[in-house]
Amino acid sequence: MADKIYECIDYLRSAPCVELLVQYRVCRCHGLDGNRKGQYAMDLVHPYRLIFIPEDDTTVLVLIEEITDYH
C-alpha cells in the first residue's frame, strides 16, 4: 500500500487544484458528505482511503487527515 500512498501524494503535489483531481477521477478522488463534508478521499488498496482536507481553494495545499476504511 505504500506505493499507492506515494502515488496519491505525488498527484496531490503536482495538481494545480483539487477540482481537477475530482474531475479526472485521479485515484478515484471524490468529495465526501455527511459528517465528513469538506473532506476528500482517494482510493488506496481496497477498502482503505487517503482522507484529506484542502487548505486553500487556489492551490493543492492539503492536510492529510488519515488513512482509513470509513465504510
Strand and helix order: HHEEEE
The count of helical stretches stands at 2
Helix content: 25-40%
Share of residues in strands: 25-35%
Tertiary shape: globular
Helix and strand topology:
Elements: H1 2-14, H2 18-23, E1 30-31, E2 40-43, E3 49-54, E4 62-68
Antiparallel strand pairs: 1-2, 2-3, 3-4
Question: How would you portray this structure in words?
Answer:
It is built from 2 helices and 4 strands. The protein has one domain (2-68): YaeB-like fold. Strand 3 and strand 4 form a beta hairpin. The chain is an alpha+beta fold and 71 residues long. 27% of the residues lie in helices and 27% in strands. The protein has helices spanning 2-14, 18-23; strands spanning 30-31, 40-43, 49-54, 62-68.
Entry summary:
This protein is an alpha+beta fold. The chain has 2 helices and 4 strands.
List keywords for this structure.
single chain; 71 residues; alpha+beta; YaeB-like fold; four-stranded antiparallel β-sheet; 2 helices; 27% helix; globular
